[in-house]
Design brief:
Length: about 150
């Protein structure tokens, strides 16, 4: 996945600055009441308006960066190749193609090439996670009923 290939872990300095910035921004966000507040870039004295939701997203990015975790942002409607989609799901490309052909994940076909929307992959992952959790609960209940947890 080319957009994941260049992601690196933030340096210690970046983590420190990000956490300091997050703390300051989180405090300011609590007092903002406009949908598009104006901020000033200190270095250039330029003032720009930014949607409040974008500032909240920036705060989340700063928090994660401050924790030393790499981050990537993708537009929800991003279309991916089958290889990139398989990499994201952690499966082989042939297995992903099988899921596509079985209708488990929506896709579009451009010529001979399949394209998968990021949002459709995330919906599939969410369904699978819920299914796994349901199965684990069934297994735990069966174990309890059979007395495996008795002391």
């Amino acid at each position: 996945m080319e957009y994941l290939a260049n992601i690196t872990k933030p340096s210690k300095e970046e983590q420190k600055v990000a956490m300091e910035s997050y703390n300051a921004l989180a405090e300011v966000l609590e007092s903002l009441h406009k949908d598009n507040p104006e901020i000033e870039i200190e270095e250039t004295r330029e003032k720009i308006r930014i949607p409040l939701n974008a500032l909240k997203l920036l705060a989340k990015i700063l928090k994660v960066t401050g924790q030393g975790k790499p981050i990537s942002i993708l537009p929800i409607a991003t279309e991916m190749t089958t290889q990139a989609a398989a990499d994201l799901l952690g499966c082989s490309r042939p297995h992903l193609v099988k899921l596509l052909e079985e209708g488990e994940i929506e896709y579009t076909k451009i010529g001979k090439h399949r394209r998968v929307k990021f949002e459709d992959l995330m919906a599939y992952k969410k369904r699978m996670k819920a299914k796994q959790q349901e199965l684990l609960i069934k297994i735990m209940n069966a174990d309890e009923e059979s007395g495996l947890y008795d002391t």
